[in-house]
Design a protein that fits this description.
Helices cover about 25% and strands about 25% of the residues. With about 350 residues, it is α+β, with helices and mostly antiparallel strands.
Length: about 350
């Protein structure tokens, strides 16, 4: 299994988190009083992130900031547990999307139903959450703390994934993908090695996937797709009222709670909150003519008839034979429950 394209912490592969406290179906978070400086800030820093090399944010001059740079899964859990015991008001995650995924997954053990506000310093190679939150590329710890003083926050719910068969605890992230998206992510690894970051890397990966499909042989693996069985919750809403077969070959599937994606991509259609999914049947029909409209957010009913399905739901069950991606990390195939997690408060500019 290849390593993540995202610059997560230098930790063993995530697999699944240890058991965490059950989360209530409502707002999670405790905020400090607006207009006051957070009494205590907990900073999880990935020193290997691209922007962090040679920088320590002047931490020696910040007595109210507890900074940790864990290098193992156990050390990360210990750091978060210590933050919770000391009652931090603000959790700052300094790294890319993979680091955010790891911290949010492990933090449930410590914070349970009482999360602090969360601030992101988008220092990684891929920062989709930072783009969604509208954070400047040069967003700093000083900026985040000033925004926290002003009470500038928005709500975002992570995607939560549980192994149904093994009853393994949840993992948390923001961009789920299966089918061809797994292969596209592997392609994106090469774009990072070539120096392409953020939206450029995402765009190049998708372009590579589409090119491999269009110009490959008629029976290549891209066009054949992979088995993805889907069962949506009762609140599922499909654009144009169409439905999809429950168990069939799929070219690609994406699901996310993000409202904005890199480089202006809009695979889920118009901007809106909640858990959104895109399911593309295999083999993909009219790929060359459909994809530009799809990624631009066009919502014509003709896309549905060609096998491009957009469905909103609070949860769905998915069985995948070839594994899935969560924020750049590859997980094994199996039977999973994918749902919209409780909302967290993220500090914004």
């Amino acid at each position: 299994m290849k390593p993540s394209i995202y610059d997560s912490l230098a930790l063993p592969r995530l697999a699944f988190a240890a058991p965490d406290a059950a989360s209530p179906r409502g707002l999670v978070g405790r905020t400090h009083r607006s207009g006051t400086t957070p009494r205590l800030v907990g900073l999880i820093r990935n020193p290997r992130s691209r922007r962090n090399v040679g920088s320590n944010h002047g931490l020696q001059f910040r007595p109210n900031v507890i900074a940790e740079s864990p290098t193992t899964r156990e050390a990360l859990r210990d750091a978060l547990a210590m933050f919770a015991r000391r009652g931090i008001d603000l959790l700052v995650i300094d790294g890319g999307d993979g680091t955010i995924r790891d911290v949010l997954t492990c933090a449930g053990d410590s914070f349970g139903a009482q999360w602090p506000d969360v601030a992101i310093l988008p220092s990684g190679k891929t920062n989709a959450l930072g783009i969604d939150l509208g954070l400047p590329a040069d967003w700093t710890l000083d900026d985040a703390m000033a925004a926290a003083v002003g009470g500038r926050t928005v709500l975002r719910s992570p995607v939560e994934i549980v192994d149904r068969e093994a009853a393994r605890p949840r993992v948390r992230g923001f961009l789920f993908g299966a089918g061809g998206f797994v292969d596209a992510t592997e392609l994106a690894q090469h774009t990072h090695r070539a120096g392409a970051f953020n939206g450029l890397a995402v765009g190049l990966a998708l372009a590579g996937a589409i090119g491999s499909t269009l110009f490959g042989r008629a029976d290549n693996r891209w066009r054949r797709g992979s088995r993805i069985a889907l069962r949506y919750s009762n609140d599922a809403r499909a654009l144009h009222g169409a439905t999809t077969a429950s168990d069939t070959a799929r070219y690609m599937m994406l699901a996310s709670t993000l409202e904005r994606l890199p480089v202006g991509l809009k695979p889920f259609g118009r901007k809106r909150p909640g858990l959104k999914s895109l399911v593309v049947d295999a083999p993909p029909r009219g790929l060359a003519t459909s994809v530009p409209f799809l990624l631009a957010g066009h919502e014509g009913a003709w896309l549905e008839t060609r096998g491009y399905h957009r469905i909103d739901a609070s949860a769905f069950d998915v069985d995948v034979s070839a594994g899935f991606i969560l924020d750049g990390e590859i997980f094994p195939g199996g039977a999973y429950r994918v749902s919209q997690g409780v909302p967290l408060r993220f500090v914004v500019s």
